[in-house]
Design a protein that fits this description.
D-Maltodextrin-Binding Protein, domain 2, four-stranded mixed sheet, 14 helices, 12 strands, disordered N terminus, binds (2S)-2-hydroxy-2-methyl-3-oxobutanoic acid
Length: 338
C-alpha cells in the first residue's frame, strides 16, 4: 500500500515536472545548478532580490544557469554553510565579512569596526571603492570568488528584553548575543558587556530562553526574524554597519563558461544595488511598524560610547591587528579613528 502510493507519487511528480513545471523553452535541465544559502528569513530583502536575480539569470541564460535559494539557515548555521562553501558542497553563500569569514580572513572584518562609518554615503564610497577592492583581493587570495557589490544588512541597533541602552553604564555586564567573531566580541567586551558568540540560526531561541538578554541587528532583520516577540527595547546606537559578501566556491565558478559567468555576476551585482535601496527604506520605515508591535525605541548619543572604546584601547588594539595597510585605507574614508 505504502509502496504503491509512493511509486504513484513519484510517477506523478515526474510527469507533472515534464508537462507543466518546466516551461517549454527551458525543456531541458539547467547545465549549471548552483545552490545559494542565506542566514536570514525569506521575507528579508536579501532573499527577495536574490530570488529576483535567480529569475533574471534563468531568463538571460535561456535556462542554462539555475540559482536555487535556500534561505533562513535551511542548510545549517553560518559556520556550517561556510564549511560547505569551502568544500564545494554549497556553491554560493552570502556572508558578512565581520562574521565567520573573519575566522579565515581576519582583516575582512575591518569595515565593522565600532562607530567607523557615519553614513551610507561614506560607506558605499569605501566599499564600492578602494576599501572594497582591497577586501575582495584578500577574499580572492583565500581561494573564494566574491561578487563586486556587497549586499546591505544595515547599521546595527541594540535590542534588549531587560532595559533600554542609553549610555555605556547600561551595557555593564549586559548579556548580549553577537555573531561568532573576534571583532564583535572585542567591541562589546570593550564596552563593558558580556557578549556570547552565537550563529543567527539560534538567536530567536537564545533570546526566548534568556540565554542572553539582548542582541544587535538592523530593523529589517528584527522585523523579518520577529525578534520583537522576544525583545522589549531597541536602542538606536548605530554602533556599526554590516553587509553580506556574495561568495562563490572557486572551483564551481571556474567550471562555468565566461559568457555565462558575466551574465550571472552582472545580474547579481545589479540586484545588490536594488537590495540596498530596499534595506535602507525598510530600516527607516519599519521603526513605526515595530513600535506598533511593542518595541520601545530610544535615541543614543554615540560620543560616550566612542570614548569608552578609546579608553579601553579598542582602536589601537585593532589597528595593530588589521595592520597599517588596511587601516590606512579605512581611515581614508572614516577619518582618524585611533
Ligand atoms: O548574524 C547576524 O546577526 C546577521 C544576520 O546580521 C549577520 O549575518 C551578521
Amino acid at each position: 500500500m505504502l509502496k504503491l502510493s509512493r511509486r504513484k507519487a513519484l510517477a506523478l511528480g515526474t510527469s507533472a515536472a515534464v508537462s507543466s513545471a518546466i516551461p517549454l523553452r527551458y525543456a531541458h535541465a539547467a547545465e549549471f545548478n548552483f545552490k545559494l544559502g542565506t542566514n536570514v528569513p525569506e521575507s528579508h530583502p536579501l532573499n527577495v532580490y536574490a530570488r529576483k536575480a535567480a529569475e533574471e539569470i534563468k531568463e538571460k541564460t535561456n535556462g542554462r544557469f539555475e540559482l536555487q535559494l535556500f534561505a533562513n539557515n535551511q542548510l545549517g548555521g553560518d559556520s556550517d554553510m561556510f564549511s560547505q562553501l569551502r568544500s564545494g558542497a554549497l556553491e554560493c553563500f552570502t556572508l558578512s565579512g565581520v562574521n565567520v569569514l573573519s575566522t579565515l580572513i581576519p582583516s575582512a572584518a575591518i569595515y565593522g569596526l565600532g562607530f567607523a562609518f557615519k553614513d551610507y554615503a561614506t560607506l558605499w564610497a569605501a566599499l564600492d571603492g578602494k576599501l572594497g577592492a582591497h577586501l575582495r583581493a584578500q577574499i580572492d587570495k583565500a581561494g573564494l570568488y566574491v561578487m563586486d557589490r556587497i549586499w546591505d544588512n544595515g547599521f546595527r541597533q541594540i535590542t534588549s528584553s531587560t532595559r533600554a541602552i542609553t549610555q555605556p553604564a547600561d551595557l555593564q555586564g549586559f548579556k548580549i548575543r553577537v555573531p561568532v567573531s573576534a571583532l564583535w566580541t572585542s567591541l562589546f567586551k570593550s564596552l563593558g558587556a558580556a557578549p556570547t558568540g552565537i550563529n543567527f540560526a539560534e538567536v530567536y531561541s537564545a533570546l526566548q530562553t534568556k540565554i542572553v538578554d539582548g542582541q544587535e541587528n538592523p530593523p529589517a532583520i528584527i522585523s523579518a526574524a520577529k525578534l520583537y516577540e522576544v525583545q522589549k527595547y531597541c536602542s538606536l546606537t548605530n554602533h556599526m554597519w554590516d553587509g553580506w559578501w556574495f561568495l562563490v566556491n572557486r572551483k564551481a565558478w571556474d567550471s562555468v563558461p565566461a559568457d555565462i559567468r558575466d551574465i550571472v555576476a552582472a545580474t547579481i551585482n545589479a540586484n545588490a544595488i536594488h537590495e540596498r535601496e530596499e534595506v535602507a527604506r525598510q530600516n527607516t520605515s519599519l521603526k513605526s511598524d515595530l513600535a506598533a508591535k511593542g518595541l520601545v525605541f530610544n535615541d543614543v548619543d554615540q560620543a560616550p560610547f566612542r570614548e569608552t572604546l578609546r579608553k579601553a584601547g579598542f582602536y589601537t588594539e585593532w589597528q595593530n591587528k588589521f595592520g597599517p595597510e588596511s587601516w590606512a585605507i579605512l581611515e581614508e574614508y572614516t577619518g582618524k579613528l585611533a
